[in-house]
Design a protein that fits this description.
Length: about 270
Amino acid sequence: MSLLNRNIQMSNEIPIVIYQMGKVGSQTIWKSLQGMNLHNPIYHIHVLNSKNIDKSIEILKSKGSPITLQLQQAQELIAYLEKCEYPEMKIVTVVREPLAQLLSSLFQRMKVHTPQLTDSDGSWKVDEIAEHTYNLVRAKKINAFHWFKREFKEGLGIDVYEYPFDRLQGYSRISKNGLDILILRLESSENWEHYLTEFFNFPVPFKILNQNRSEEKTYKTAYHQVKSSLKFPHEILEEIYSSPYCQHFYTEEMNEGFIDRWKLAE
């Protein structure tokens, strides 16, 4: 049933939207919620900015590929947002340490977006992947830095940096004009079940079912080889972890730990 045809004024009909950048645990939360057989419509999207949706659809059409379910759901949600003055939604988004997110996302999409980094037999060019990732970081093409402005702010009209984030507990909640938003940190996922149970006001504890983990993919060996070998100069890391994104969502101690993790040996 289309969202526009639902009586969303009823509390148990409020749509649930898993709206976040890739490789931050969205599949895990989405599948876990689906397993609860809720009456609410559940959406799983990475894009809600209409310009980005149109661009993605153009790319798919140019390759002769069908429009994905995620893009179809995004179009439906945009229609809902445009029709209702105060659209009700329960929105969950997740943040992740930016270099880990970048590398994981790169592997997830590699055979489609950067097939030159794989051999004709399907194997992975580990050295070339590491070099490509290094160049992306040097060029500041780090998705986590731009996603909330390019997507969240444009799609929902909410600047998350204007709202406090509990950096010790790893979550925050924003309520504005009918939108109820829960922001979680991947590195604090041991607390997700508690925060999600409270957010949705479930009568029983919410249980997480792990899904879509890079460690369980066919590329897991290459992924770990690149992850373990990839190192950066201290000045690059200082710039990354002093960014508004890292300063807003992570403690100083956590950012220092990330720098130690990725820095070149002295």
